[in-house]
Amino acid sequence: MERETFTFEMFEHAVDEFVECVQDGISCTWKMIRGEKEPNCVLLLCKFESEDKNIEKFHATFEVKSSRRGVKKSDRNGQLVIECIVTPIYKKKEDLRVTTNFYESYMTNCTLLVGGREMHVNKMFISLHSDFFFNLFSSDVQDCSLDEILIDGVNPDDFARLLSAVYPNPVLPTAETAPTLLKLAHQFKMRGVIKMLRPLMICNKTLEIGEKIALAERYELEELLEHCIGSLKTANDVKKLKNAPEYEKFSDSTKIKILDRILTVL
Asked: How many Cα atoms within 13 Å fall on the side-chain side of residue 4?
């Protein structure tokens, strides 16, 4: 019997759904046995090494695609028997939708390589939502037969959430994810997502007012700028803003609007 170390990811409320990952979580012991009737699948029997009594034993099947997971034939009875330590990571249902949006299917015709992760997409669909990809896939710029594209310098989870905002099974942005997605939406020229993010930026509670104004200037979010300036109610609010590290970089027009607000408040 061989002993290997594996890391998988499983999703809350979707116990049978597993994806390989590299995070830490609850340790458990697995036995993998090749099924006689389905030789291309592996049966995983799990025994958790956890003190949490609410976690139950369960099993799932995996298709054997390569030996990189340590999947090898055993000489004993011609069956595969592997004992390994695996780390399951519980994810929210939203994360499951983000992941499944980019599985390979008959509708996908291009692979995006983002941070070492393969994301299968349909070129026409993402071109409809992104001027960046429209230009990339345009015959005037690139060969339309291009079926694998490297996307550098982008967090794969953030990028997946960006595209998932416009997918048929969407994962909509939140006020918390809006600042990160705003930067990516501008980078990949997704005007529909930018419009979606504008009200969420106003609702965001994690950014200071100086940070919001800086983003409003950078990405031309006039509604956010007006909201931030209108939120100055007291002399202390104004003093706090003037002490913000972003203040000196504000444009003259924004500083004039702030001055007008100060005169109104005082």
From this structure: 15
pLDDT tens track for 73-124: 343 444 434 444 444 444 455 555 566 778 888 899 999 999 888 899 999 9
Pick the CATH number of 93-176 from 3.30.710.10, 3.10.310.30, 2.60.120.10, 3.40.50.300: 3.30.710.10
β-pairing, 59-63 vs 41-48, is: antiparallel
Q: What is the pLDDT of residues 194-240, one digit of tens each?
A: 999 999 999 999 999 999 999 999 999 999 999 999 999 988 898 89
Cβ count near 85 (within 10 Å) = 14
Best CA proximity match to 214, nearest among 192, 261, 237, 182: 182
- What's at 164, amino acid-wise? S
17 closest CA partner among 121, 93, 104: 93
In the chain, residues under CATH classification 3.30.710.10 are 93-176
Task: Extract the tokens encoding 62.
Answer: 């995996």
Structure tokens at 9: 């990811």
Q: Which amino acid is at 54?
A: N
Distances (CA, A) of 233 to 124, 199, 252, 258, 264: 48, 21, 21, 11, 9
Q: Can you give the pTM of this predicted structure?
A: 0.63
